[in-house]
Design a protein that fits this description.
The protein has 137 residues and is of the alpha+beta class. It has one domain: Rossmann fold, CATH 3.40.50. 34% of the residues lie in helices and 14% in strands. The chain has 4 helices and 4 strands. The strands form 2 sheets. It has a two-stranded antiparallel ribbon. A two-stranded parallel sheet has the order 3-4. Strand 1 and strand 2 form a beta hairpin. The longest helix has 20 residues. The two termini are 32 Å apart.
């Protein structure tokens, strides 16, 4: 089954220069670089070589941005398989169990690439006003 025009646009918008090659990074998607986030050597008593990664520089300020990118790459792989005629299904809707930051990071990228919205399972007992009132959804 051929890809629809919309699926073709999505597929060609997801650019993965390479996977697992630090000389050709794929993250962050808008400006791939290695290392993907700034690192700083810090002094920790009793240790000689400790580095801090500043994940706050990621698009949504969390290490969950990496997970989000991998979900987008999973959609790319699905579309490539569909393009090759190995599957006929429409794009699936992915789901996660989350308390907030993973869902924000993932949905942000899914929306950017015009992919199906994320389904989230969240504990209804959460009272965190930030999660309940976040306007990204």
């Amino acid at each position: 089954m051929a890809l629809s025009e919309e699926e073709q646009k999505i597929l060609y918008s997801i650019i993965v220069d390479s996977e697992n090659d630090p000389m050709k990074p794929e993250f962050p998607p808008d400006n791939p670089q290695f290392p993907a986030t700034p690192t700083f050597k810090i002094e920790v008593p009793g240790f000689s070589n400790v580095w801090l990664k500043d994940e706050s520089k990621n698009p949504t300020g969390t290490n969950n941005d990496r997970k989000a990118w991998e979900m987008v790459v999973t959609y790319r792989d699905f579309l490539l398989t569909k393009k090759n005629g190995q599957i006929k299904e429409k794009l699936p809707q992915l789901s996660v169990i989350t308390s907030g930051s993973a869902a924000i990071a993932i949905q942000s990228l899914l929306r950017h690439y015009k992919l199906p919205p994320l389904k989230c399972l969240v504990d209804l007992d959460l009272k965190d006003e930030i999660l309940l009132n976040y306007e990204y959804y």
